[in-house]
TrEMBL record:
Family annotation (InterPro entries): AAA+_ATPase, ABC_transporter-like_ATP-bd, ABC_transporter-like_CS, ABC_transpr_LolD-like, Cell_div_FtsE, P-loop_NTPase
Organism: Thermobacillus xylanilyticus
Pfam families reported for this sequence: ABC_tran
CDD domains associated with the record: ABC_FtsE
Membrane topology designation: Peripheral membrane protein
Taxon lineage: Bacteria, Bacillati, Bacillota, Bacilli, Bacillales
Name of the molecule in the record: Cell division ATP-binding protein FtsE
Keywords for this protein: ATP-binding, Cell cycle, Cell division, Cell membrane, Membrane, Nucleotide-binding
Length: 228
C-alpha cells in the first residue's frame, strides 16, 4: 500500500527531515510512527498524502508514484487518503453533517449518495444525533470523531492520523482508538503518529521509530520505547 525507497527530504534551510528512508507498509496494516519531536514524523506523514514531495527517492501509495504525480492527479490520490489532524481542522460555521459532506461535495458525488453515506459514517462514529450541531457545541472527543468521519467518508484505502489523541483526555483517547481499530478492521491501512506510550504499549501493533530523519527501529508488535 505504501512504499518508500531511499527517500530524502531536505528543506530550503538545508535541514534534512528524512535521510534515506526505505519502508514497506502492506495493505490493511496498522502502523504506529514514534520518535522524539522533530524526528521527521510529520514530514513522513505529509509525504504520504502529497503535502510535501521527496527531494530524492521514490514514494508509491496505492500504486501511484507520489513524487511524479501530475497536478491534475493530486485530488484523485487525496480522495483515496483520509487525513486526521490533532487540531481537528473542522469548518466552524458548518454543521457536523456539512463538515463531513464537504469531503464528498468536492469530488462532486451525487447529493443522494452524499446524504446516505454521511449518515452512515456519523452512525459509525456515534454522532448521528449530532448531525445538525456546530463544532463549537461539541466536546473535543466529538470533534475528533467528526474529523475521522470526514476522513473516511470517501472510503479511502489509507488513513493518516497525526497525533489523533494528542489533545484528548485518556478515556476519550481510548474511544478514538477503538474507532480507528474498527476502521482498520473494515479494510483501511492506518499510519498513526503518536507520543501516547500507553496506547502503543497496550494495543500492540507494528512500530516504526524515527530519529533524526532515519528509521532506527521497525518491529511487528513493538513498544513505544521512549520516556515521556
Amino acid at each position: 500500500m505504501i512504499e518508500m525507497q531511499d527517500v530524502w527530504k531536505t528543506y530550503p534551510d538545508g535541514s534534512h527531515a528524512l535521510r534515506g528512508v526505505s519502508v514497506l507498509i502492506e495493505r490493511n496494516e496498522f502502523v504506529y510512527l514514534v520518535g522524539p519531536s522533530g524526528a521527521g514524523k510529520s514530514t513522513f506523514m505529509k509525504l504520504i498524502y502529497r503535502e510535501e514531495v521527496p527531494t530524492k527517492g521514490q514514494i508509491s501509495v496505492n500504486g501511484f508514484n507520489i513524487g511524479k504525480l501530475k497536478p491534475r492527479k493530486i485530488p484523485y490520490i487525496r480522495r483515496n487518503i483520509g487525513v486526521v489532524f490533532q487540531d481537528f481542522r473542522l469548518l466552524p460555521k458548518m454543521t457536523v453533517y456539512e463538515n463531513v459532506a464537504f469531503a464528498m461535495e468536492v469530488i462532486e458525488a451525487p447529493k443522494r449518495m452524499i446524504r446516505k453515506r454521511v449518515m452512515e459514517v456519523l452512525e459509525l462514529v456515534g454522532l448521528k444525533g449530532k448531525a445538525n450541531s456546530l463544532p463549537a457545541q461539541l466536546s473535543g472527543g466529538e470533534q475528533q470523531r467528526v474529523a475521522i468521519a470526514r476522513a473516511i467518508v470517501n472510503n479511502p484505502a489509507v488513513i493518516v492520523a497525526d497525533e489523533p489523541t494528542g489533545n484528548l483526555d485518556p478515556e476519550t483517547s481510548w474511544g478514538i482508538m477503538n474507532l480507528l481499530e474498527e476502521i482498520n478492521f473494515r479494510g483501511a491501512t492506518i499510519v498513526m503518529a503518536t507520543h501516547n506510550k500507553e496506547i502503543v504499549n497496550t494495543l500492540r501493533k507494528r512500530v516504526i521509530a524515527i530519529e533524526n530523519g532515519v528509521i532506527v527501529r521497525d518491529e511487528p508488535r513493538g513498544e513505544y520505547g521512549y520516556e515521556i
